[in-house]
Amino acid sequence: MSDPVSAFRDAVHSGDVDAAVALFAPDAVFHSPVVHKPYEGREALRVILRAVVTVFEDFRYTGAYADGDDGGVLVFTARVGDRALEGVDILRAVDGVLTELTVMVRPYSAATALRERMAALLT
């Protein structure tokens, strides 16, 4: 994996949201698995990641795929309540700085549980 992707994985595994967010450009973009409009900026990303570490239980990365210096994909598993889910973090980077994070999860029932829990935390 490229350095920023590995650093992101390590920060998330250790629960260090601030370290994870620091790897992103100030104008980074986050694409949610359950919200149509992208979130922009580090502070939006910080709020979302803090909520995610509260909502996801038994979170762990299970695989990683490199895309050279342009980013990579991290595969993960977690639970939201009684719903097991699988997902991927798609990370894009420019010159060693993360610029974009897209998250996809499955199955639909877990994505729905995720949307409900995240909405309760973010409203």
UniProtKB/TrEMBL annotation:
Residues 5-100 form the SnoaL-like domain. It comes from the Bacteria. It holds the Pfam family SnoaL_2. This is Nuclear transport factor 2 family protein.
